[in-house]
Design brief:
There is one protein chain. Helices cover 20% and strands 34% of the residues. The chain is α+β, with helices and mostly antiparallel strands and 697 residues long. The chain is globular and about 90 Å long. The protein has 15 helices and 37 strands. Helix 1 (24-31) crosses helix 15 (540-552) and helix 5 (97-109) runs antiparallel to helix 15. Belongs to the class I-like SAM-binding methyltransferase superfamily. Protein arginine N-methyltransferase family. PRMT7 subfamily. GO terms for molecular function: histone H4R3 methyltransferase activity; protein-arginine omega-N monomethyltransferase activity.
Length: 697
C-alpha cells in the first residue's frame, strides 16, 4: 500500500503530493512525536507515579482488587508504574499500532507481561465482559490525554465514554482533576499576532497611513489556540490587567460531559488598560487532596522551584475579538466557551451582560487564512517595513514599472507611495487576491495597483499591459514555505518571468545568503535525546524505535523551530555558506559548498542552526535568523517572526579545552531541480578537548 504525503516544493511555491512507501506515515509519526520530551519530563513522571501509588493504596485499603485502565498508554510507562505499585491487573489501551507493539515489548522487557494487557484499539471500541477485551470494569482510571489546551486531543469525549462503559462508578482517577487558569493582559506584541496595525510610510508627498479593511479589523480570527513557550516572553512585553483566576475545572473521577458549554467568571482589573489577550494554562491534581500537583504555570505565576521545561505542554494565548478599554476596579465578565476540542473567550462589561453564543469563531476577512500569527507580527514590524522602504527608495524612479512576487505582501503599496509609475502584484491564490483587493480598496488604491492571479510561468505580456518590468520586488514570503530556504521560490518565479523583465531590470532583493552557526540548546535538545531508563523502567525499545524512524529519512533533514522560544548559546561564529544571485536566473547545476567552523566556546554542540539573509540593496539586509552577532557569552537574539532550521547532530560534541579549537566540518548542497538543501556535519574528534554523547539522530 502506498501513502500520499504533502511536501512543500520550493520550485513551484506550493504543496505537492508525493507517493511514499507504506511505512512513511508511521515513521513520520514516530520521528516527529514528543515521546522523548514526555519521557524526559521528570516532574510529570514523578507526579504520575506518586498519584498512581496513592490511588492503588486507596483501593487496596478498601479491600478491593486494583484494576487499572490506562487510556493512551504510549510506551506503557503509566501501566508499569501501576503494576509496580501493586495493581492486580492493568488494561493498557493504545490505538496507534506501532506504538502498541512497542508497548508490548517494553512491558515484557520489564517483566510485567502477566500484569498488563496491551489492547490495540481506540478506547471507544474496547469491550467489557467474559469474552471482551476487559474482563471487568476498572476501578482506577489512568490517562495522559492532554495537550497545551487541555482538551485538544479529545480528552473530554474519551473520559465521557470511559465513565459510561469502561470504569466503575466512584472509580479513582489519575489525574483526579484539572483546573484551567486565565489572566487578562494588554500586549502590543501579542496583539500584533492577530490584528494588522496601521502602517506608516514616509512618501514623497508626506506621511501615508495604510489602514486595514473594517472587515479585517472586526474579524474574530481563527479558532485555533496560539500555544507558545510563554516563559520566553519577557515581562516588559505585556501588562497584567487582572489577577490569575480559575476559569473552570474538570473532575475526572466522576462522569464527564463533552457537550459544548460555557463558563463565566467575574474579573476586577487591577490596572486600567486595553484588554486584548487572555493568557491561559492548567494544572492537574494527581490525588483528591491536591497534594500531588503538576502545573503549567508561567514564571510570574509559579510559586515552586525548580522550573520544569517541557514542550509537549506549554501555555495558551487567546485573542479577544476586539480590544476593550477597562478601568481598574470595574466589574467585568469573562466567558470561556468550549466544544469537545477547543476553547475561546469573550469579555463583557457586567452592565452589558448578554446571552452567550457558543459557536466557535470563524475568520470572515480571510486574512487569517492567508497570514499565520507570526506573519501578522512580521507585517506589523515597523522596523522591518522601514528597511524595505529605504531599499525601495534607492531603486525606484518616476518611470518605474514594478512587479511584486510574494504572498499577500505590502510591498506593492510601498512601491506605489514611493513613486513607481505602475505597480503589479502577482498573487498565487484566490485567498491572497481577495485579501489584497480588500486592502487596496480600503486605502483607495484599487485603481493604482493591479492584482494578477496567475502563476509566474503563465504570465503573458497582456497581463502587464505589454510593458516591461523595470523593478522586480519580493520580500520574499510564501505561505507554503516551511524551512527558511523555501522562500527561494522567488528565484524560480524570477526565472519564470525573465522574458517580461527589462534588460536593465533591478531585482530587490538582489541576492540571498544561507548562514549557519553551531549551538548549544538550553532545553530543545531533549526532544532528540534518548531516555534509556525512565523512573526505573527500561524504555530503550522506544529510543530504538525513534532512532529507526529518524534514520528512515528525518535525521538527514533540518527541521523548523521558532528559536525565540528555545534559548541557545552560540559555540561558533555565524558563517555564510551559500549565496543565491537573484539578478541571474536559477542555474541548471547544483550549488555546493564544503568547509568547517571552529567551536570557540565551551559547551555541548547539539546541532547547527541555519537561516537566510536577504540583501535588499548595497547596505540593507534583512535576516530571518540572527538579529545581531551573539554577545561574549554566546547569547542569541532570533527573528521572532520566522522559524529557523535546526539540524541536530548525531552525536553531541562536548568541547572543554579551547586552546586548540575543535572544528565541525560541513557539506551543503542546494539542488536547483528540487529547491531542497541536503547537508551533512562531522567533527574531527580530539579526545583531549571533547567528549561525545548520543542524540537520536
Amino acid at each position: 500500500m502506498k501513502t500520499f504525503c504533502g511536501r512543500a516544493n520550493p520550485t513551484i511555491g506550493s504543496m505537492e503530493w508525493l507517493e511514499e512507501g507504506e511505512d512513511y506515515d508511521y515513521h513520520q509519526e514516530i520521528a516527529r512525536s514528543r515521546y522523548a520530551d514526555m519521557l524526559h519530563d521528570k516532574d510529570r513522571n514523578v507526579k504520575y507515579y506518586q498519584g498512581i501509588r496513592a490511588a492503588v493504596s486507596r483501593v487496596k485499603e478498601r479491600g478491593e482488587k486494583a484494576i487499572v485502565l490506562d487510556i493512551g498508554t504510549g510506551t506503557g510507562l503509566l501501566s508499569m508504574m501501576a503494576a509496580s505499585a501493586g495493581a492486580d491487573f492493568c488494561y493498557a489501551i493504545e490505538v496507534f499500532k506501532p506504538m502498541a507493539n512497542a508497548a508490548v515489548k517494553i512491558v515484557e522487557k520489564n517483566g510485567f507481561s502477566d500484569k498488563i494487557k496491551v489492547i490495540n484499539k481506540h478506547s471507544t471500541e474496547v469491550t467489557v465482559g467474559p469474552d471482551g477485551d476487559m474482563q471487568c470494569r476498572a476501578n482506577i482510571l489512568v490517562t495522559e490525554l492532554f495537550d497545551t489546551e487541555l482538551i485538544g486531543e479529545g480528552a473530554l469525549p474519551t473520559y465521557e465514554h470511559a465513565h459510561k462503559y469502561l470504569v466503575q462508578e466512584g472509580c479513582e482517577a489519575v489525574p483526579h482533576r484539572a483546573r484551567v487558569y486565565v489572566q487578562l493582559v494588554e500586549s502590543k506584541r501579542m496583539w500584533s499576532w492577530k490584528k494588522l496595525f496601521p502602517v506608516r510610510v514616509e512618501a514623497e508627498d508626506g506621511e501615508k497611513i495604510l489602514v486595514p479593511p473594517s472587515e479585517m479589523e472586526n474579524c474574530p480570527g481563527v479558532p485555533s489556540v496560539c500555544d507558545i513557550q510563554l516563559n520566553q516572553v519577557p515581562s516588559s512585553d505585556f501588562t497584567t490587567l487582572s489577577d490569575v483566576v480559575t476559569m473552570f475545572s474538570v473532575d475526572f473521577s466522576k462522569p464527564v460531559q463533552s457537550a459544548s458549554t460555557y463558563y463565566r467568571v467575574q474579573l476586577e482589573p487591577v490596572k486600567s488598560g486595553k484588554a486584548q489577550i487572555v493568557l491561559s494554562w492548567w494544572d492537574i491534581d494527581m490525588d483528591p487532596s491536591g497534594m500531588i500537583n503538576c502545573t503549567m504555570a508561567p514564571y510570574w505565576a509559579l510559586y515552586i522551584n525548580p522550573f520544569q521545561w517541557r514542550d509537549h505542554w506549554m501555555q495558551c494565548v487567546y485573542f479577544l475579538q476586539n480590544e476593550e478599554p477597562v478601568l481598574q476596579g470595574e466589574k467585568l465578565l469573562l466567558t470561556a466557551c468550549r466544544d469537545e476540542y477547543s476553547v475561546w473567550y469573550n469579555l463583557q462589561k457586567e452592565e452589558h451582560k448578554a446571552d452567550v453564543h457558543v459557536e466557535s469563531p470563524v475568520c470572515r476577512c480571510r486574512a487569517h487564512l492567508l497570514w499565520n500569527r507570526p506573519r501578522f507580527g512580521e507585517l506589523n514590524d515597523q522596523n522591518r517595513t522601514r528597511q524595505y522602504t529605504m531599499a525601495l527608495r534607492k531603486v525606484l524612479k518616476t518611470d518605474s514599472v514594478c512587479l511584486c512576487i510574494s504572498d499577500g505582501s505590502l510591498l506593492p503599496v510601498l512601491a506605489h507611495y514611493l513613486g513607481a509609475k505602475q505597480v503589479f502584484t502577482l498573487e498565487n491564490s484566490g485567498v491572497s487576491c481577495s485579501v489584497m483587493d480588500k486592502f487596496f480598496k480600503a486605502n483607495h488604491l484599487e485603481d493604482k495597483i493591479k492584482i494578477l492571479e496567475v502563476r509566474p510561468e503563465l504570465l503573458k505580456p497582456s497581463h502587464l499591459e505589454d510593458k516591461k518590468i523595470s523593478v522586480l520586488v519580493g520580500e520574499p514570503f510564501f505561505t507554503t514555505s516551511l524551512l527558511p530556504w523555501h522562500n527561494l521560490y522567488f528565484w524560480y518565479a524570477r526565472t519564470a518571468v525573465s522574458t517580461h523583465l527589462a534588460s536593465d531590470v533591478t531585482v530587490l532583493p538582489q541576492s540571498a545568503s544561507l548562514h549557519m552557526m553551531v549551538v548549544e540548546f538550553q532545553d530543545l535538545w531533549r526532544i532528540r535525546s534518548p531516555c534509556g531508563i525512565c523512573e526505573g523502567f527500561d524504555v530503550q525499545t522506544m529510543d530504538d524505535m525513534i532512532k529507526d524512524s529518524l534514520n528512515f529519512r528525518e535525521s538527514k533533514e533540518a527541521e523548523p523551530h521558532p528559536l525565540w522560544e528555545y534559548p541557545c548559546k552560540s559555540l561558533s561564529d555565524p558563517q555564510e555558506v551559500l549565496t543565491f544571485d537573484f539578478t541571474r536566473t536559477v542555474p541548471q547545476h547544483c550549488l555546493s559548498t564544503e568547509g568547517s567552523v571552529n567551536l570557540l566556546r565551551k559547551g555541548k554542540s547539539h546541532g547547527a542552526v541555519l537561516w537566510m539573509e536577504y540583501h535588499l540593496a548595497a547596505d540593507i539586509s534583512v535576516s530571518t535568523g540572527l538579529m545581531q552577532i551573539p554577545n561574549e557569552k554566546g547569547n542569541c537574539e532570533w527573528n521572532p517572526h520566522c522559524k529557523q532550521a535546526v539540524y541536530f547532530f548525531s552525536s553531541v560534541i562536548e568541547s572543554e579545552i579551547l586552546s586548540d579549537p575543535t572544528a565541525v566540518t560541513y557539506a551543503i548542497n542546494f539542488d536547483t531541480k528540487t529547491g531542497e538543501i541536503a547537508m551533512d556535519f562531522n567533527s574531527a574528534l580530539d579526545e583531549q578537548s571533547i567528549g561525545v554523547s548520543v542524540l537520536y539522530v
